[in-house]
Amino acid sequence: MAAVSWSDVIAAAPELATVALASQSDILGVANVRLAVGLFGGEADPMLRLARILYAAHLAAMIRLGVSGPLIGESVGGMSRTYAAPFMGRGQLGMTSYGMALLALMPPATRGPQVL
Predict the structure, then answer these.
(1) How far apart are CA 91 and CA 100, in angstroms?
(2) Quick check: 5 pLDDT over 90?
(3) Which residue(s) pair with 81 in the sheet?
């Protein structure tokens, strides 16, 4: 399986090492299931693994930029908030370098109309 860990994300994006542990788990939960496996050649394909790393880094970068989805969890002792991942349309992927790299990995047919 091409599931990724937070250490994989940090290897690609060391500046995201300070992302809160709860957010790391949420981000990985989304990144490891949200991408269409068939677009990247299956679970064993290294492209899927790289796509998941880039997507997780993109989500973390968006959170650091203050772009998040609705509040889905909150605890008082230790002060923690968990937000749902925001909808990631093509335009939102273009808001971070990681999202743009992910778009570049995707097959051309998934990126919309192409002008040659």
Answers:
(1) 10
(2) yes
(3) 74
Task: Tell me the CA distances in angstroms from 63 to 3, 19, 33, 45, one per residue in order.
Answer: 21, 9, 19, 28
Nearest-CA neighbor of 105 among 47, 62, 20, 53? 47
For the chain, give percent helix, strand, coil, nearest 5: 55, 10, 35
Computed from CA positions of residues 27, 33, 39, 45, in that sequence, does the dihedral angle turn out positive or negative? positive
The predicted pLDDT at position 92 comes to 77
CA R_g for the chain:
15
Predicted confidence (pLDDT) at residue 8 exceeds the cutoff of 70: yes
Amino acid at 67: V
